[in-house]
Amino acid sequence: MQKPTGVKATFERGNHRLDIELNILIFEEDNIHYVYSPALDLTGYGNSEIEAMSSFEVMLAEFVHYTENKKTVYKELERLGWTVNVKKKRVHPPHEDQLLEDNEIYRDLKNHPNVYTSSTTVGLALA
């Protein structure tokens, strides 16, 4: 069963902005709520789903700012299995089958009955 929810984040710098759609997994374990993005291998957590979403947004912002400052955004996305075209400044997240093959955490979570997925649009600025 899918619950409607999502993370909305926009990161912009000048005229640089990128909107992507991310699938996130939402689950609870030992009374801690988690939000996990297999495409970015990022996790947020908290005492409630709202806290977990907020934590995920912070983690996403830190990922973007850190990799942008280090000029490693494209390199990191490629490492995570994304298709990257630096010249055209286009990126595409890995497909579901690729994530299942490459990401053990994602494979494990997909087999748990209390994990549900949500699709959300996230804006990333890539300079």
Structure, explained:
The chain is of the alpha+beta class and 127 residues long. Helices cover 33% and strands 30% of the residues. It has four helices and six strands, in the order E-E-E-H-H-E-E-H-H-E. A four-stranded antiparallel β-sheet has the order 3-2-1-6. A two-stranded antiparallel ribbon has the order 4-5.
Oligomer: single chain
What count of helical segments does DSSP give?
4
Query: What structural category arises from helix and sheet content?
Result: alpha+beta
H-E string: EEEHHEEHHE
Low-pLDDT segments: 1-8
**Strand element count:** 6
SSE inventory with pairings:
Blueprint lengths: L17 E12 L2 E6 L4 E5 L2 H21 L3 H7 L3 E3 L4 E3 L3 H7 L1 H7 L5 E9 L3
Antiparallel strand pairs: 1-2, 1-6, 2-3, 4-5
What's this model, at a glance?
With 127 residues, the protein is of the alpha+beta class.
Keywords:
127 residues; alpha+beta; 4-stranded antiparallel beta sheet; two-stranded antiparallel ribbon; 4 helices; 6 strands; 30% strand; disordered N terminus
